[in-house]
Amino acid sequence: MSDVEVDSSGSPAASQPGTPEFAIASQTSYARTLFFSTDGLRPGWGIAFYAISFLLLQQIAVQLAWMRNLGDSGLWSMLLEELGDLASAVIPAIVLARVEGRPWSTYGLPGKNAFGRRFWTGVLWGFASMSMLMFALYEAHTFAFGHIMLHGVRLVRFAAFWALLFLLVGLFEEFLLRGYTQFTLTRGIGFWPAALALSGAFGLIHLRNNGEHWPGLLAAAFIGLFCCLTLRRTGNLWFAVGFHAAWDWGETFFYSVPDSGTVFPGHLLNSSRSGPDWLTGGSVGPEGSVLCFLVVAITWIVFERTHPLTGRNRASIPASGAASGD
After folding, report:
1. Whose CA, among 10, 101, 107, 109, lies 20 to 30 Å from 115?
2. Is 73's pLDDT higher than 80?
């Protein structure tokens, strides 16, 4: 005898009251909830994936750059390493942009602004700031220009080489620490807390340079914070890239002094420094001088007053960052 109940019309009865409705298939999966929020990949996971991918790719890039002796005291290998570093920073961000459905311009290097007015304005500011520092050291009788060591084709060749290399350095370091990472951390903790954390990291990575000491690390972090300000006020990284590249070019090639503890070949002058380390910067170079902090502070104040925060550039920062104020 069948246990199926029938109604008065002879058809099977409706399901019994209290029968569970299995709607699990229509709910968001646990894995998606774990990794994604309403505005994309959760910041912690995004930073973790980006950092691990970058470190793995960078190891490969360094090995490829130095696997063969290209001559010129390793300068060409250095150039290839910087190119590989840039690729290692960009590739994970491209992948994450696809995963999160964001346009590339979100991370601070919009192609339509590449090497445009903001970049060249940054170049002028970077070289002017470095020149201000070197002339302050000159007036303090701790720096002497010496005489020109390069002429003719060699001068043009090395000037162009260092310009290209420091352009790659500017693109790499600005994007690594103020591109995807700055955008993603801002989503989680706000713009300026993220800027402080990443600028501190920017200072610490200079520990790998020979001759670097804590004043230089602090100066690098301070300069990193200034570059965060330029991102905040301009809406992208092109000013910061130009500033960074010109600062390093002026320091290494034009004024021919140590750059973060390293003196490179192919510089313009046989300049010299003398005096106490707190004033000259010692083995670190001018970035380790107390005058560097003064120059960057002046540059910060002038930039802040000439580049006010507007609704347009504020809109380029994630909402959680905008809430943190300026």
Report:
1. 101
2. no
